[in-house]
Amino acid sequence: MNSKELIFQAAAKLFREKGYAATSMRELATQVGLEASSLYNHIKSKEEILQEICLRNAGKFTAGMKIIQDISNLNALQKLESIIRLHVVIASEDISSVTVFNDEWKHLKEPVLSNFLKQRKQYEQSVKVILQEGIEQELLKKVDIEVALFSFLTSLRWIHYKFAKGRISSERLTENLKTILIFGLANS
Amino acid sequence: MNSKELIFQAAAKLFREKGYAATSMRELATQVGLEASSLYNHIKSKEEILQEICLRNAGKFTAGMKIIQDISNLNALQKLESIIRLHVVIASEDISSVTVFNDEWKHLKEPVLSNFLKQRKQYEQSVKVILQEGIEQELLKKVDIEVALFSFLTSLRWIHYKFAKGRISSERLTENLKTILIFGLANS
DNA sequence: GTCTATATAAGGATAGAC
DNA sequence: GTCTATCCTTATATAGAC
């Protein structure tokens, strides 16, 4: 891995633990074994690091969603399951990075911020369409789409917690989330 | 409302929008119509504001949980429903403050941080006991308790989103969350 | 590509006049 | 209780030697 990638990785870890604004370039430099000024031979600015982390993850989710949409023989339930798996896989690949993507995007500056929010909105819209499809086909209950959307996605937004703390496998996590989020906690 | 409370309120709004670390005392002062130095006639430090916001909300959740536990004739499903209502009510009372409580606690310093985390752990433990009860009584499916706990609580941790963006009533939100989180999205 | 030194800005917080 | 002035620290980022 080159210096730039090592910096991104160390930055993701720090941004996750302390938050973007509370992380200094001096701390980051120490983590990668350099002086602060030396970082600027590899990156343009602190902001650039955040942009890279956020946009890379946005790209992963967008690409994953496109694949799910393109598999035409999945019904709404199977699509939701695929989305759960997508979130678990991305979180398992790089926990720190996806946490920064989730929690620190608000420190992005224009015009990157608008670009980021547009992508997120589009992703949410894709999930919304699947939920609507499911309700129309009577595969899903007639719930408020907005509440379902936010409840579903925010549950998935915190998957990294489990990987960070626990020793649960991707498969078991996916299976459990599928049961809980789609079929509910209650015994029916 | 006295000056101190006005400062807390303005601070919660700013901390929520920009994050604790990215909010300056000068900005906060401007919001309440003062110079930065004048704030210190009402509060001891920036940190004290965060402490107040976090501990007040922690207190609300702890108190609410105690009441739910004390109602002895509720079964696990009814207790979970009560917890949903508790989160909706607290979020509806003061959206900014509860968001700061959720997202900015990591900037607390010791010994307050440990105290805060202890309270949070205790709250999670209470929910866990209810989930275990529900599984033992076969009211709930045999899911991984940790996944159920985190999935349930994190869904509720983002309720403020709905109040901020939408025009949904507390009653309708509670009802929808109950359906989704307890009985699942899927039609059974 | 890394370092030391430094420019420049902004941060939290205090002193003391009114 | 609020102000102006300021202390002191820390921040991002650049310049220029090696």
Can you describe this structure?
- Two copies of one chain form a homodimer.
- The first copy, chain A, has 188 residues and is mainly α.
- Chain A has one domain (46-183): Tetracycline Repressor, domain 2.
- Chain A has helices at residues 3-18, 25-32, 36-39, 46-70, 76-93, 95-103, 112-136, 145-156, 159-165, 170-183.
- In chain A, helix 5 (76-93) packs across helix 6 (95-103) and helix 7 crosses helix 8.
- At the A-B interface, helix 8 and helix 10 of A face helix 8 and helix 10 of B.
- Chain A binds a DNA duplex (18 and 18 nucleotides) through residues 3, 24-26, 34-42, 45-46.
Spell out the blueprint of helices and strands:
The structure is a homodimer.
Chain A: H1 3-18, H2 25-32, H3 36-39, H4 46-70, H5 76-93, H6 95-103, H7 112-136, H8 145-156, H9 159-165, H10 170-183
Helix pairs in contact in A: 1-2, 1-4, 1-6, 4-5, 4-6, 4-7, 5-6, 5-7, 5-10, 7-8
Chain A binds a DNA duplex (18 and 18 nucleotides) through α3.
